[in-house]
Every structure is written in C-alpha cells, then in structure tokens.
C-alpha cells in the first residue's frame, strides 16, 4: 500500500474543495497503470468527503442542503467553538470522512461529472489534511 497526506487550506467559511487533481497526481506517482483501490480519508471530526459534480452550482447546493439539514444554531449540545459548531460534529454521520474508489489502469474510475470533494463546514479549522492510499489489485 502507498500513502500520501496533503494539506488543504479551507479558510474560515464553509467550503467544498475539489481534490480530484491531487488524487490523480498521487496515482500518477504510485499506480503506474495498475488496477486497485484508491482510499481517501479525512482525519477530522468536522469534515467529510463527497463524490459530486462541481462547478455547476452543486457544491453551493450541497452547502445549502447541509444548512437546511443541520442548521448552525445554538441548540446543539456540543457547544464549544463558533456559533452552531455542534452541527459540524454531526456532519460525518451524513457525509463520511472517507471514500473508496476503483482504479483501472492507474486512473480513478469516476463518472463524467464526478469529483472527489472535501466538505468542510467548520470555519474554526482553516487547514485540513487528506490522506490518499492506493491498494494494488
């Protein structure tokens, strides 16, 4: 198994960050036209990974849906951090901190409009890590 950790600056506001190019760069270095599995993991309690379309408004729609499903209110029992931060700790139950994707011939087998995205609603932590691991088949 080959692994690499990248650092992603997410800033101080909720954001969806496409990390597909970084995943492809990682596979270029380690997969060498092999088949296998790419596992992506975010080691944070308040962030997740989603496989979605980006650039056509879907990333903003996802953040709007998170706000509707998990409003940033002071009603959460988990209350440290910024206003409504408790909802950020519930996020990984809906948007998990991991994704596993097939790799065929050294390339991620994503659909035409799919991207690997870091979802970070927590403005309290402006820097995140993403771990890529390749398991050859």
TrEMBL record:
Gene3D superfamilies: YjbQ-like
One Pfam family here: YjbQ
Source species, domain of life: Bacteria
InterPro entries xrefs: UPF0047_YjbQ-like, YjbQ-like_sf
Family per similarity comment: Belongs to the UPF0047 family.
The protein's name in its UniProt record: Secondary thiamine-phosphate synthase enzyme
Organism phylogeny: Bacteria, Bacillati, Actinomycetota, Actinomycetes, Micromonosporales
